[in-house]
């Protein structure tokens, strides 16, 4: 059995990020990453068809959503690789009666559009509504502050597009902490958004990397020390008096500190018997499958709809969760691409049929690529934040040397995973 100071299970963004942070914060520690797949990156990937390279999985970063993303990008020497989204990326479309409707970007825009004109009164009256500090569902939050029309046509499709889940069940504090934070600080979301437009110096906008977000994973691999073993399947974890034994593959390891940077179902299967609180946490956090489909066309099918993409309210009964207008978002990228997110696998023909209903005159794509991720979307039900806090307390109290990180804890975004990885590395370095 080989000895290391720290064993990290999982070579996705969480595992690769904490490996890098540990190399900076605790350079003397001997670290190994064990990844069961041949490829690193987890849900972050890259595809190539007909000489066109495209990202698979998450598409963009937002510096304003992370305390540590910007410095990480700079430390890795990726600043020159950043590609910022076009100015039209602020425009988002909501599907209503199977048609795309752009969400206005100003009060004047709301006044001009009959569809959204009726939103003005609830948006303005929201200023006078008292704040509620306790947790509530996304739907109840939206209903309380803005009314049913905005809840059904904005917050519901936004929840579907990001989490693939039900706004009437998911926690607003866990899924969209921004809203509860601004409600507490400003007393009003719409007031904050109006004033925020006048603020300067704050990092804004979305960006990707020249060679897709997979470039971040590749740079994390080469920019820090610590062995990485791929295609290494873990069979068993044993807690000892002095540390942790990790058994599986053709090598077994012992370490004082063990980091599980794995999806929730894998984490629970490995340590659920050691700590029942992990198994209980999994039972209270449903996991959904997510499908990413990339279609490439001979022309930009979204030229009449410049923007980031479209989201779909529940009442539309659409097979789509969301559509990203890749070519509008990053015009300089290769190919006229569109990315579609669904909960179930659809054929190329089904994708084209639905896109044709939305846009009209959609041709047969040059190519179609599909990727499924099983149990990849954790559902943060009401009270999720308290359950995370309790789980962290139990692990810290009962299992010295065990660290849990991943998208099922503090957020599903890449930025949230990076922030959790940094905080965990900071604790491990002390």
Low-pLDDT runs of 5+ residues are: none
The rounded distance between the terminal residues' Cα atoms is 26 Å
Q: How is the biggest beta sheet arranged?
A: 7 strands, mixed
The geometry reads as globular
For the record, the count of structural domains works out to: 3
In round numbers, the mean pLDDT is 94
How many helical elements?
17
Query: Any guess at the CATH architecture of the largest domain?
Result: 3-Layer(bba) Sandwich
At CATH level 3, the topology of the largest domain is FAD/NAD(P)-binding domain
- Beta-strand residue percentage: 15-25%
CATH superfamily of the largest domain: FAD/NAD(P)-binding domain
Q: What is the strand tally?
A: 19
Radius of gyration using CA atoms only: 22 Å
Structural class: alpha/beta
The helix content is 25-40%
State the CATH class of the largest domain: Alpha Beta
């Amino acid at each position: 059995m080989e000895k290391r100071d720290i064993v990290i299970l999982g070579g996705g963004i969480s595992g690769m990020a904490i490996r890098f942070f540990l190399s900076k914060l605790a350079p003397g520690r001997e670290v190994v990453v064990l990844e069961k797949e041949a490829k690193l990156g987890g849900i972050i990937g890259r595809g190539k068809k007909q000489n066109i390279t495209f990202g698979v999985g998450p598409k963009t970063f937002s510096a304003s959503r992370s305390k540590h993303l910007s410095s990480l990008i700079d430390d890795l020497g990726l600043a020159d690789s950043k590609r910022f989204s076009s100015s039209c990326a602020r425009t988002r479309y909501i599907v209503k009666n199977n048609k795309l409707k752009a969400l206005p970007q100003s009060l004047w825009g709301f006044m001009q559009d009959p569809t959204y004109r009726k939103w003005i009164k609830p948006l303005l009256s929201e200023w006078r509504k008292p704040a509620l500090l306790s947790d509530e569902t996304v739907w109840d939050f939206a209903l309380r502050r803005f009314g049913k029309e905005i809840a059904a046509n904005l917050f519901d499709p936004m929840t579907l597009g990001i989490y693939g889940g039900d706004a009437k069940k998911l926690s607003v504090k866990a899924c969209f902490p921004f809203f509860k934070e601004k409600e507490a600080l400003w007393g009003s979301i719409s007031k904050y958004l109006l004033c925020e437009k006048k603020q300067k110096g704050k990092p804004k906008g979305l960006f990707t990397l020249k060679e897709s977000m997979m470039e971040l994973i590749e740079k994390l691999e080469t920019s820090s020390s610590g062995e990485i073993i791929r295609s290494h399947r873990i069979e068993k974890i044993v807690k000892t008096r002095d540390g942790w034994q990790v058994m599986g593959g053709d090598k077994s390891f012992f370490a004082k500190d063990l980091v599980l940077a794995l999806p929730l179902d894998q984490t629970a299967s490995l340590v659920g018997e050691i700590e029942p609180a992990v198994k209980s946490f999994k039972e209270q956090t449903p996991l959904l499958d997510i499908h990413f489909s990339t279609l490439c066309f001979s022309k930009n099918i979204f030229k009449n709809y410049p923007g980031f993409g479209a989201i779909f309210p529940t009442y539309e009964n659409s097979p789509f969760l969301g559509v990203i207008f890749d070519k509008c978002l990053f015009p300089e990228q290769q190919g006229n691409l569109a990315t579609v997110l669904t909960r179930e696998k659809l054929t190329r023909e089904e994708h084209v049929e639905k896109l044709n209903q939305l846009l009209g005159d959609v041709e047969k794509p040059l190519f179609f690529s599909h990727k499924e991720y099983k149990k990849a979307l954790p559902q943060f039900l009401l009270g999720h934040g308290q359950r995370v806090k309790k789980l962290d307390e139990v692990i810290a109290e009962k299992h010295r040397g065990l660290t849990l990180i991943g998208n099922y804890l503090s957020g599903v975004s890449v930025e949230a995973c990076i922030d959790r990885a940094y905080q965990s590395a900071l604790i491990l370095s002390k």
